[in-house]
Design a protein that fits this description.
two-stranded antiparallel sheet; disordered C terminus; mainly alpha; about 300 residues
Length: about 300
């Protein structure tokens, strides 16, 4: 059965240091993206309360009694609508960068925990070795260097490296991976082309209806879809990598960003029951079948 947790807000009770940094950044980015809309909604709620309080002495409605307040509300709505695409672009870009930082951090932690995974034909100079006071310091430097080299590669190459070296799949469900890949492609388009659609973006996303040379209007849905897939992939992968390589996971329930999810520990079960009671079955995408894997460096180490 597909996991029904709300991965956009759900965080685990235990996580590696790398994951904790990811969740902390995610929470701050989500708050920033929602700030303008939340402020507007609060103002509208207060204005509605004022209108209700003065309804008896305002037969023509509260707008006639407080025209300036309602004009201000309309201006605020225009501003929120105007900045939403930019907020979505910023949120999505930071989300992708946060995910890639997690991957780099967890690979570094893994290589430090299991130095034999660093075995390679690559040569280092004696000077580079002697710059470090201990073998542990050299291992940490070598791990960070390897991750830095990896960071310049594409998402698929990073996933292949993890599969080959660590013997783990970076993602479990293909639907999550496809959403994240689109988010990464959109982030690259925003950063490198100011959102102007090129042939590479059309090919990567498979959206043949996009017009080359036109501007892609990033929506909050794009951001949320990317963030949800990144959160789910990190949540699932962190458990596997920590277990396989004995990486310490610390308690997160005391962290300010800890969240059991919008629907609590039961996930979407309550929502499912309401849907079923209404006479329609909720859609549950099937989990991808786990393929047999080859022996990797991690298994041999």
């Amino acid at each position: 059965m597909t996991d029904q947790r709300d991965f956009l807000t759900w965080t685990p009770k235990k996580a590696t240091d790398a994951a904790c940094r990811f969740y902390d950044q995610h929470a701050r980015d989500m708050q920033h993206a929602a700030a303008a809309n939340l402020t507007f909604e609060e103002y509208e709620r207060l204005l509605s309360g004022v209108g209700a309080a003065f309804s008896e002495i305002a037969p023509d409605g509260p707008e006639a009694l407080f025209p300036e307040l309602y004009k201000r509300r309309d201006r605020m709505r225009e501003i929120v609508d105007l900045i939403t695409p930019a907020s979505a672009e910023l949120g999505l870009t930071r989300c992708v960068e946060n995910f890639l930082c997690y991957v780099a951090d967890i690979i570094t932690e893994t290589l430090i925990a299991r130095p034999q995974l660093l075995k390679t034909q690559e040569q280092v100079s004696l000077e580079e070795v002697l710059e470090h006071e201990s073998i542990e310091g050299f291992i940490s430097w070598a791990a960070e260097r390897r991750v830095a080299q990896l960071s310049f590669k594409g998402l698929e190459e990073i996933a292949q490296y993890i599969k080959k070296r660590l013997g783990l799949e970076l993602h479990q469900e293909e639907v999550d991976w496809l959403k994240l890949k689109k988010g990464v492609a959109l982030r690259n388009l925003i950063v490198h082309r100011r959102g102007i659609i090129d042939q590479r973006f059309i090919y990567t996303t498979g959206q043949k209806d996009l017009a080359k040379g036109s501007a892609y209007k990033t929506t909050m849905r794009d951001y949320v879809r990317t963030a949800e897939s990144a959160m789910k992939i990190v949540g699932e992968f962190d458990v596997k990598v920590a277990s396989k390589f004995s990486i310490t996971q610390r308690s997160t329930e005391g962290e300010k960003w800890y969240n059991p999810g919008r629907w609590g520990p039961e996930g979407k079960q309550k929502q499912q029951k309401l849907t079923e009671a209404a006479g329609s079955e909720p859609h549950s995408p099937s989990r991808t079948r786990e393929e047999p894997r080859e022996t990797t460096e991690a298994d041999r180490a």
